[in-house]
Write a structure and sequence with these properties.
single chain, mainly alpha, f41 fragment of flagellin, N-terminal domain, two-stranded antiparallel sheet, rod-shaped
Length: about 280
């Protein structure tokens, strides 16, 4: 009696081909995307951890951009303070010149004209210097100001994730004790020298405070960048594709798929032969 057709073997071979195709698609997706966990079923726990790490990386990346903006903010303030310092130094120079007893009232009047222009420029810069609408030198950024400006430098909500920028006292002539000064007489000029010296000390202290904040932002930026690199490396370790291993696996899966397809072809030819023999018997 002739052998009957073996549908069970054909079904098993078709299932094997489907499994090999599925594995091949998964490996191809892993190689193409660089991501080992291309679907949740591959590693549910790893996927959850990878997602948390990615969320943290994105948050810290934004924090890094915040720090950069804060550094620019502080740099603009420092530039304004440097200008005010230069103006105050020029005012002191004029006061020293006017205190010279060999000068007459006319010469002191000429010196006083420039002296008053210097004071007016200090007030103008103090009231006008701003960053994105935020005044920098008018007292809005003083430590006790109700207008508190914080830079979000971390990914959390606590105060440890923020750096406060309120370290800049007002630099207008009234606050610095320069308002109303003139150098029209020797005594007035000598008084102006003492007042300007005090103002320069205040300005320099404010610049030191600003420099400290600038250094803190720079240090925080470095730590944040390092943390991002480390988190990215950890995420890559968890979810990244080992390309060399994946290509080796891809080669093996291609071989298995080709083998299963050839086996199916052999089985189909065997079935055809069996059908032929059955037909010969029937005839």
């Amino acid at each position: 009696m002739a052998s009957s057709i073996d549908p069970e073997t054909t079904r098993l071979l078709l299932n094997l081909i489907q499994r090999n195709q599925s594995g091949l698609r998964t490996t191809l997706a892993q190689v193409a995307s660089g991501n080992r966990i291309v679907r949740p079923g591959i590693d549910p726990a790893g996927l959850a951890l990878s997602d948390r790490l990615n969320a943290e990386i994105r948050a810290l990346s934004q924090s890094s951009r915040n720090i950069e903006t804060g550094a620019n903010f502080i740099n603009v303030a420092e530039g304004g303070l440097a200008t005010v310092n230069d103006l105050a130094a020029r005012a002191r120079e004029l006061a020293v010149q006017a205190s010279n007893g060999t000068l007459g009232d006319t010469e002191r009047g000429i010196i006083n004209t420039e002296f008053q222009q210097v004071l007016s420029e200090i007030d103008r810069i103090s009231q006008s210097l701003e960053f994105n609408g935020q005044n920098l030198l008018n007292g809005d950024l003083a430590p006790g100001s109700p207008n508190q400006v914080n830079i979000q430098v971390g990914s959390g909500s606590g105060p440890e994730n923020q750096i406060n920028l309120n370290v800049i006292e007002a630099t207008d002539t009234a606050t610095l004790g320069l308002a109303g000064l003139d150098v029209t007489t020797v005594n007035n000029a000598l008084t102006a020298i003492g007042s300007i010296d005090t103002a320069l000390g205040t300005i320099n202290q404010t610049r030191a405070n600003v420099g400290s904040v600038s250094n803190r932002l720079a240090a925080t930026a470095g730590v944040t960048r390092e943390t991002i690199v480390n988190l990215a490396a950890a995420e890559e370790e968890i979810a990244g594709t080992d390309i060399a291993r994946a290509i080796s696996q891809l080669t093996q899966e291609l071989t298995r798929l080709e083998t299963s397809i050839r086996s199916l072809g052999i089985q189909n030819r065997s079935n055809e032969n069996r059908v032929g023999r059955l037909l010969n018997i029937n005839t």
